[in-house]
Amino acid sequence: MVIFIPIMFAILLFSIILSFMGISVVDQAKQVASNIPVLSNYVKTEDQIIAEEEKANIDELMAIINARETELSLLEQTLSTKEEEILSLLNEIEILMGQLEEKKETQLEVKTEYIEIAKLYETMSAKNAANILTQLSGDEAAIHLSFIKIDARAAILAKMAPDKAAELISLLSDN
């Protein structure tokens, strides 16, 4: 004890004097301790602590980057599937537009035919037109009558049997 207490006192006094001179005794002690093989596992310098924190930050940032890259790849896949879906829908729209044009042309042809048939009925006598229309089904006769001018239509309906004329007028009013 006689030797240990004075040595500790000398070390303490020496470290106080060095700290007044601007030398960090604690940092120097850590530096020396980090060079000793057994103590280096327990004592770390500020540079080592900063390096470990930077490594932890880098690892954390890399994990965030990997997560973002995964999310980005998923979004790119979703985008590509949506683009494919849009392209298929556009193709379907083009097909449907073509079909619509075909139907319009067909309807125009049918309408033209009905107009020609109506002109034929208008040139006939009302009695002959009434006889022909009575032979047709109710819906078909109503379609033919709808293309005939009102004056000729009235004359034709007047020459028909009352029940058939009433049926056709009812069908015409529904259209």
UniProtKB/TrEMBL annotation:
InterPro entries hit by this protein: Mg_transptr_MgtE_intracell_dom
Domain of life of the source: Bacteria
Pfam family, one: MgtE_N
Positions in coiled-coil regions: 51-106
Domain Magnesium transporter MgtE intracellular: 116-173
Keyword annotations: Coiled coil
Protein name: Magnesium transporter MgtE intracellular domain-containing protein
Species in which this protein is naturally found: Anaerobacillus alkalidiazotrophicus
